[in-house]
TrEMBL record:
Organism superkingdom: Bacteria
This protein's name: AMP-binding protein
PANTHER family noted in UniProt: BLR5969 PROTEIN
Domain AMP-dependent synthetase/ligase: residue ranges: 91-315
One Pfam family hit: AMP-binding
Boundaries of every AMP-dependent ligase C-terminal domain copy: 364-447
InterPro entries to which the protein is assigned, alphabetical: AMP-bd_C_sf, AMP-dep_Lig_C, AMP-dep_synth/lig_dom, ANL_N_sf
Organism: Paenibacillus planticolens
Length: 453
């Protein structure tokens, strides 16, 4: 059975790149009728070592900053002997590249095909430059037939930002080029795409896949009721792919019930592109090891952590010429596991715990906001709209009610009792009816020391 159609292959005239060599590797896999997802680990790691060394040589020869950092770390040539040695390559800090579009650029500026920016809620954005070949050739080399079952029978609605950041255009390219699906580029509430029109378009064109954020999936579901569009009847999705914010398994389950379809998590970023995606077993993200090498470090000592230990996620991109990320500190917290997945994928599995700055310290213990959200979402009378506020070490939960007969006071008491039982820490609860909806990133966690915007 063939799912992905790869209807079109792009080529670029007079192009030479350190990545050309990997076309043969992926062609070989095609010929064998296999994808990188099910390769024996030795073959995956052999490919990754070659790709990392090709990237190290590329940055060594084309970027002053990377070269000086490797020099300082004692490298006399841009090469590691095995994957363990990747730990000796210097880490790339976010603040080094924030606001600086040249710092790690590895090509002549005239080679840039596309610029993307991070949303940069605080301070200056991070600029990432891609060549045309990055996005239309190399990014499409690794295929993931197990992780994506989409085909040209599908119609994908992309409700992700198309402005500045990567997600909208990234998903659009992936679905168009790799799977041959028709695309409905909804964006997220832009001038041309109000919510009712977006839902109408999904209905008219019988969308089967929706790629969006958890909060926007909730917003669309909520608004569908207002506009009289019945989910599961007027819009019958097979799958929703969630990205951008991350959420708990219980939040996901509630979206699955509401939309009446499978909901899968996808992890990526504007800086690193694709990083991980869930298979239908839903037990964490399979790392897209054709595209990236993922490590986990202790954020304080910066030492690499073994499988199973939680720390900061480090990403090295494998198929980039414009602006490769080498051991990039993502600021995301998680842990890696060896795959023992029933789906048969041999790709490592990543468990995400959230952003470093979103961790909630209660009674000296750091809690993932996803865990607290999970406890909150266990209460069916609470809606998908809530905020956690941390002030002087005390957690305050503000949440909206959902189809409940309880008064606000009764619900607040119920939430408090449940959370104390689950968390073992007391909290304040306020039931509100005006938690802000957003077309941007939903802000779920507010710390007293940080501005509330
Ligand atoms: Zn799996």
């Amino acid at each position: 059975m063939k799912f992905q159609s790869h209807k079109m292959t792009v080529s670029i005239d007079e192009h030479s790149s350190h990545l050309e060599q990997f076309k043969d590797f992926f062609k070989q896999l095609d010929d064998e009728g296999i994808t990188i997802e099910k390769l024996p680990r030795e073959r995956i790691e052999d490919y990754q070592l070659k790709a990392i060394n090709a990237t190290l040589a590329h940055v060594w020869h084309h970027n002053e900053y990377y070269r000086s950092k490797l020099d300082e770390a004692g490298f006399t040539e841009p090469k590691i002997e095995n994957l363990e040695q990747l730990a000796s390559v210097p880490l790339l800090q976010k603040n080094v590249i924030r606001g600086d579009k040249q710092k790690i650029l590895c090509i002549d500026p005239k080679e840039i095909g596309q610029v993307h920016l991070t949303s940069g809620t605080s301070g200056k954005p991070i600029y990432t430059s891609y060549t045309l070949a990055d996005q239309y050739i190399y990014d499409l080399l690794p295929k993931y037939l197990e992780l994506f079952k989409e085909s040209d029978e599908d119609v994908a609605a992309i409700a992700l930002p198309y402005e500045f950041a990567l997600p909208g255009l990234g998903f659009q390219r992936l679905y168009q080029f790799a799977f041959g699906t028709a695309i409905l580029s909804l964006g997220k509430g832009g001038y041309m795409a109000p919510v009712d029109k977006s839902l109408e378009l999904m209905k008219e064109y019988k969308a089967t896949v929706l790629a969006t954020t958890p909060s926007y999936a909730a917003l669309l579901a909520e608004e569908s009721e207002r506009f009289g569009i019945k989910l599961g009847e007027d819009i019958r999705l097979k799958k929703i792919v969630l990205t951008g914010e991350g959420c708990s398994y219980t939040f996901r389950e509630r979206l699955e019930k509401w939309w009446g379809c499978e909901v899968s998590f996808f992890y990526g970023s504007t800086e690193c592109g694709v990083v991980g995606v869930e298979c239908s077993e839903h037990r964490g993200y399979h790392v897209m090891e054709g595209h990236v090498k993922v490590e986990v470090i202790d954020p304080v000592s910066e030492k690499k952590l073994p499988y199973g230990q939680t720390g900061e996620i480090i990403v090295t991109t494998l198929l980039r010429e414009g602006m490769p990320m080498v051991r990039y500190r993502t600021g995301d917290i998680g842990l890696l596991q060896k795959s023992k997945c029933a789906c048969g994928c041999t790709l490592d599995v990543l468990q995400l715990r959230g952003r470093m700055e979103s961790m909630l310290n209660l009674g000296g213990v750091d809690y993932s906001p996803f865990l607290i959200e999970h406890f909150l979402m266990e209460i069916p009378d609470v809606s998908l709209w809530y905020q956690f506020k941390l002030s002087k070490g005390v957690l305050k939960i503000e949440a909206e009610p959902f189809r409940t007969n309880l008064t606000d006071e009764q619900l607040a008491a119920k939430v408090r009792t449940h959370m104390v039982e689950r968390l073992g820490v007391d909290c304040e609860v306020e039931i509100k009816h005006d938690i802000p909806r957003t077309f941007g990133k939903a802000i779920r966690v507010l710390h007293e020391s940080k501005p509330e915007k």
